[in-house]
Amino acid sequence: MQIGFYHLTRSRVEEALPRLLEKVLAAGHRVVVRTADGEQLELLNRALWTYRRDSFLPHGSRADGFADRQPVYLTTGLDNPNGATVLVLVGGASLEGGEAYARCLDMFDGNDPEAVAAARRRWRAARESGHELVYWQQTDGGGWQRAR
What we know:
This protein is an alpha/beta fold. It is built from 3 helices and 8 strands, in the order βαβαββββαββ.
């Protein structure tokens, strides 16, 4: 599995995540977004409804029902009820069960030293497990640049 580490430096996750999800959905994939806690799940849920005036991203969680129909499924657990091929980890959520996905996006706050240290630990563990790793750094304009 390929794991992309997304180093946030200009935006908060609730600002950057919708744009990444738009690209993943446009490529025809379904997504599970796994958060570390219910509070962050609710924050992301609201952000996906309101991030742009003229648009929203179709998504849901266990509370919404119809989990198998959701193009983007938000969870704090290990479930994948929508048959997603892409897993997005935010807030330090666990990669456990990640082998069920073709690709993983691990987003972390580059302005939080603890989050950066935790991401480095996840990077080392993923490398030791033999995953293909890609590092993406946020640009001044909020986009992404692959770094080496």
